[in-house]
Write a structure and sequence with these properties.
Strand order of the largest sheet: 4-12-11-10-7-5-6
Number of domains: 2
Radius of gyration: 21 Å
Structural class: alpha/beta
Shape: globular
CATH superfamily of the largest domain: Type I PLP-dependent aspartate aminotransferase-like (Major domain)
Distance between the termini: 29 Å
Number of helices: 13
Number of strands: 17
CATH architecture of the largest domain: 3-Layer(aba) Sandwich
Order of helices and strands: HEEEHHHEHEHHEHEEEHEEEHHEEHEEEH
Largest sheet: 7 strands, mixed
Strand content: 15-25%
């Protein structure tokens, strides 16, 4: 990588990211290219954002079309695209209302405000919200308070005091935390940032039952798992539940920033005019692009192919594990896959990058894969071969 670029980043960009030594100059499909035109197979898809790959023709075409008609007006007026997108989301999930914003953390902030307002309307002076250890809900103060990981929270105290933390997949501990002040539960069905840890079906069904019986609002954070990532339209569809609020972002915009909170009909009036807003939320350009993204991903044949690719990827990883003895505990749904690795996971990421493959390390022993949903079996095989090559050396 050009050292001058790195030095200029240090001079002009706030140092809040631990970047890899890769300068991406362009991208297409499942590949990104550096300034020397070397190409890298992307098994991370911009942290689960580029589910249709980079510069998908339909996305690019819709961007061009919308940019020539209408980009931004504010929410003081009515426009067509936000309505069409909201209708498409509702038609493919459950009856309710949609609030549009710019990111996953903003979608979760909207959900948190709804929970607080709901509690206040019920006369609860100190509303409590249950979230789960090892979760990740965002970086803003409200969503950070919901994120029960000390490594993210440390140094930003005092946090919002309404959050109570429970052990993931532990219904006994969760039940202990429920009381007369509990207004909501916020949970990821796969803790992606926490290591691709899946929620057990029995646990989720019991949490859902508690929420239904006690009129506690259940918020399902689908920022990373939504929009086809797990082989279904939304991850909650793998379980016998329906969220009261579902938060979305990442893949929804096809590479452009957008978030959404989908609020069930029962709770549609908790927030009224003037109680919450997002200046760029429901931007005409981005909502038009997102509509095209959903048209492609929500196709039954497309999702069937995602599941076939998932089975292939898991089977190949299992074979590598059996051959090398260096990877184990392969898990996840669709094309959100994690596994444990018994060599230095951060060095493994660096070695893969040197060999033309982009992956992600979590914690001290976990590797996360989140390739674009459009990836081909041939491209999956290429990525697997790169990982196997490196592991074979370390065997």
């Amino acid at each position: 990588m050009n050292k001058k670029i790195k030095l200029e980043y240090e001079k002009y960009i706030l140092n809040t990211y631990g970047r890899q030594d890769l300068f991406i100059s362009k991208a297409k499909g499942c590949y990104v290219f550096d300034e020397y035109n070397n190409k890298y197979l992307d098994f991370l898809s911009g942290l689960s954002v580029n589910s249709l790959g980079h510069c998908h023709p339909a996305v690019v075409s819709r961007i061009k079309k919308e940019a020539e008609i209408l980009m931004h007006t504010s929410n003081l007026y009515y426009t067509k695209n936000p309505l069409n997108l909201a209708k498409k989301i509702i038609a493919n999930s459950y009856k309710g209302r949609v609030f549009f914003c710019n990111s996953g953390t903003e979608a979760n902030e909207a959900a948190i405000k709804i929970l607080h307002k709901y509690g206040n309307k019920k006369g609860i002076k100190k509303p409590e919200i249950i979230s789960f250890y090892n979760s990740f809900h965002g970086r803003t103060l409200g969503s950070l308070s919901a994120t029960a990981q000390t490594k993210y929270q440390s140094g930003f105290e005092p946090l919002i005091s309404s959050f109570v933390y429970a052990n993931y997949n532990d219904i006994t501990d969760c039940e202990k935390k429920v009381n007369e002040n509990t207004v909501g539960v916020i949970i990821e069905l796969i803790q992606a940032e926490g290591g691709v840890i899946e929620a057990e079906k029995e646990f989720i069904n019991k949490v859902y039952k508690i929420c239904q019986e006690k009129e506690i609002i259940l918020v399902i954070d689908e920022v990373q798992t939504g929009i086809g990532k797990t082989g279904k339209k939304f991850c909650y569809m793998h379980y016998d539940i329906e969220p009261d609020i579902m938060t979305l972002a990442k893949a929804l915009g096809g590479g452009l920033p957008i978030g959404a909170a989908v609020v069930k009909e029962k709770y549609k009036d908790v927030l009224g005019p003037g109680m919450h807003a997002a200046t760029f939320g429901a931007n005409s350009l981005i909502t038009g692009v997102a509509e095209t993204v959903l048209e492609i991903i929500f196709n039954k044949k497309f999702l069937n192919e995602v599941n076939k690719k998932s089975e292939y990827l898991k089977a190949e990883l299992k074979e590598i594990g059996n051959t090398t003895g260096l990877i184990s505990n392969i898990r996840g749904k669709g094309l959100l896959i994690g596994f444990d690795i018994s060599i230095n996971n951060k060095q493994f990421v660096v070695d893969c990058l040197k060999n033309g493959l982009i992956i992600n390390a979590i914690g001290e022993k976990i590797i996360r894969l989140s390739p674009p949903l459009i990836i081909t079996e041939k491209e999956l095989k290429k990525g697997i071969e790169i990982m196997y090559k490196i592991l074979r050396v370390n065997k």
